[in-house]
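Input structure tokens:
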């Protein structure tokens, strides 16, 4: 019996444990932190051996294969020991993909992947039997075990791609690549780029890579490191022969001389970046032979993703917007770019070595006041102090929202778009976003 050791008892770990057990592995789950009660119950009910707040090295180093949670860096001594022993280390998507014949759409990128994956799934599910997994919802492994869909849309992070071996999506999407998580890649942008491109490493000419042709990082990397896949770029600025481009507010998509044209005027999602997300999702759908009318209707009734430019409430003619999912500067760039009114901007958190320079034009043009919400706001105060008349700092969401309420006027926006990770004051970006919404509703 092959021994499967799982490091990390979260959603992906427990899903993999269930699938592994079903497929005849001897499964052991080990978590250095505490395993949540809800996951403990699943493990106990399924008679899967587990431990938490500890790693039993002897047991772990006896594995045939190790599935490690994407949150555990390679630098951890235990992971080094596992690799030095020649034990295969895989990610959940690698493990689960071995047990499904389904057609896979894999979506990665620094920003926009959640929206693009959710939108793609929203279109495809009108016609196909399709699951949505990866970084969203129930784990891929659990869905392979319990649902057995014919198609999957997977939102995939660079950390999950770092541990693939044979994983091959039939259609891969790279939304964009901007510096993020560099602390995990020795502060070398090149390593992070290469990690994203692993999504195409096993693809052949029969598979497709859809990418943003306006993103110089992607275009340059493809020149130096060509892939086998059939390329379908999308662009807001250039005319594209095979792929998608924007002209006169219409998305034009051509695949093998088969063209469809989609008006963007009634798309629910606002902003240029969302036009790109819509292009990527529509290109996937066109490839999978979804009718133009179905794609268009789906684009027009898609509500968007929670914590991503989510319109919460209008109070005294001030619009409150929750963009808590903006955990890096580039995501906040898109948010500020799409603001069409004077904006009170709530920013801050755990800084990942941010360079805020690209935001300066928007701050000068659109931001009337800044509220710094972080355990340490010094860098923000120094960077933006001279740019706006009002800049204040706080450590509490309820206080940040109250200050915003006081300084905003009719016609303004109040935007939570932190550009930072949330772990200094919150459990995660969802917790941060929900606290914002709750504070707004309590005004």
């Amino acid at each position: 019996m092959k021994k499967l050791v799982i490091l990390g008892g979260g959603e992906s770990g427990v899903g993999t444990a269930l699938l592994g057990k079903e497929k005849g592995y001897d499964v052991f789950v080990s978590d250095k932190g505490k395993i949540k009660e809800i996951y403990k119950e699943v493990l106990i009910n399924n008679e899967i051996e587990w431990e938490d707040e500890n790693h039993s090295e002897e047991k772990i180093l006896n594995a045939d294969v190790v599935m490690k949670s994407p949150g555990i860096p390679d630098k951890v001594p235990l992971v080094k020991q596992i690799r030095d022993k020649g034990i295969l280390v895989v990610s959940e998507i690698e493990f689960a993909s071995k047990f499904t014949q389904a057609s896979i759409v894999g979506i990665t990128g620094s920003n926009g992947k959640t929206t693009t994956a959710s939108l793609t799934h929203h279109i495809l599910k009108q016609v196909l039997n399709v699951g949505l997994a990866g970084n969203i919802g129930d784990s891929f492994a659990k869905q392979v075990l319990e649902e057995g869909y014919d198609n999957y849309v997977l939102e995939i992070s660079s950390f999950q791609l770092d541990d693939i071996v044979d994983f091959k999506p039939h259609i891969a999407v790279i939304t964009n690549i901007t510096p993020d998580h560099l602390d995990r890649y020795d502060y070398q942008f090149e390593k992070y780029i290469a990690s994203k491109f692993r999504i195409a490493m096993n693809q052949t000419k029969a598979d497709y890579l859809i990418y943003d042709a306006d993103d110089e990082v992607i275009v340059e990397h493809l020149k130096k490191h060509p892939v086998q896949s059939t390329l379908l770029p999308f662009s807001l600025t250039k005319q594209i022969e095979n792929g998608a481009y924007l002209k006169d507010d219409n998305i034009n998509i051509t695949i093998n001389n088969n063209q469809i044209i989609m008006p963007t005027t009634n798309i629910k999602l606002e902003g240029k970046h969302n036009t790109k997300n819509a292009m990527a999702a529509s290109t996937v759908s066109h490839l999978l032979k979804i009718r133009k009318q179905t794609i268009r209707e789906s684009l027009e009734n898609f509500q968007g993703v929670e914590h991503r430019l989510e319109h919460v409430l209008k109070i005294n003619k001030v619009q409150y917007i929750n963009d808590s999912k903006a955990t890096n500067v580039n995501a906040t760039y898109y948010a500020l770019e799409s603001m069409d009114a004077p904006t009170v901007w709530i920013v801050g958190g755990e800084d990942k070595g941010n360079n805020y320079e690209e935001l300066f034009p928007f701050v000068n043009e659109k931001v009337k006041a800044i509220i710094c919400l972080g355990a340490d706001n010094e860098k923000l105060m120094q960077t933006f102090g001279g740019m706006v008349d009002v800049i204040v700092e706080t450590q509490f969401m309820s206080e940040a929202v109250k200050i915003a309420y006081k300084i905003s006027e009719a016609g303004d926006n109040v935007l939570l778009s932190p550009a930072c990770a949330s772990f200094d004051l919150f459990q995660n970006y969802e917790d941060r976003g929900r606290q914002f919404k709750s504070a707004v509703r309590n005004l």
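The domain at 310-441 is CATH 3.90.190.20 (Protein-Tyrosine Phosphatase; Chain A). The chain has a mean pLDDT of 94.
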